[in-house]
Amino acid sequence: MSKLKISAIVLAVVVILVVVILLLKTEAPNEPVSPVTEEPLKETQVATSPTTTKSTIGTSVENRKIEAYTFGTGDDNLLFVGGMHGGYEWNSILLAYDMADYLESHPEQIPSNITIHIIPDLNPDGLYLATGLEGKFSATDIPNNSMHSSGIGRFNSRDVDLNRNFACKWAPESSWRGKTVSAGSSAFSEPEAATLRDYVTTIKPKSVVFWHSQANNVYASECENGVLPETLALMRAYSTAGNYGAVPVFNAYPITGDAEGWLASIGIPAVTVELETRTSVEWERNLAGTKAVLQIYGK
Question: Domain for residue 5, yes or no?
Fold first, then answer.
């Protein structure tokens, strides 16, 4: 075979190989190739907000839910309670719900060592009796005829004043503005009072704030051994920030079995914030007061 023929065959083979290679590249899937120097992607760090939870912690005489909201993840617990007197003091319940909404939207306001607990309505039967409402509501939901000067909605469904049903100098009857009121058959005989007792026993709060109305004051608490020094500091901080009066000892009329006194008897500072009216949450004042409490206990 001549050299010319061999060269032609080799050239033909080369051409065939080039065509095959080009065809293979055309049919191969287009897969992205990472540069050799590319660094692996770093995991994105997402800031987490404090945990918000809602739980049922008990039920009323008529089996309505008593709920608690918690905000934050700290080891130090603070407790705020509204609605001790149900629909008679509905603005204390509305304030508690408004504060819960605020804390959920502003978790940065909660110190890292704090968990805030809010019980918006300790007396849901009283709320329903006075207003026909259950659960979360707004001011526009309140009926025009809900203002009962006789105290309708203040008591629970067994006509017991819950703030006379706790274990501080408890007696079967107590007083409210010169009227005799039932304090139940024994301390904590009412499921609502027992719910608060059990919750306090579980979370062991550093302090407790009760929202009531109406007197435009912050009252300290005491039982048999006088006012705790820390209670006085709590009273002054809230009253100053919220522009309320400060009353170290309640002496307007004798009472027994109050929740604040029971807390004092077990060494937990507690104050009663009496709003100025029974129709407003006095938001800015109570937000300032709440922040003052957080400043005391925050680290």
Answer: no
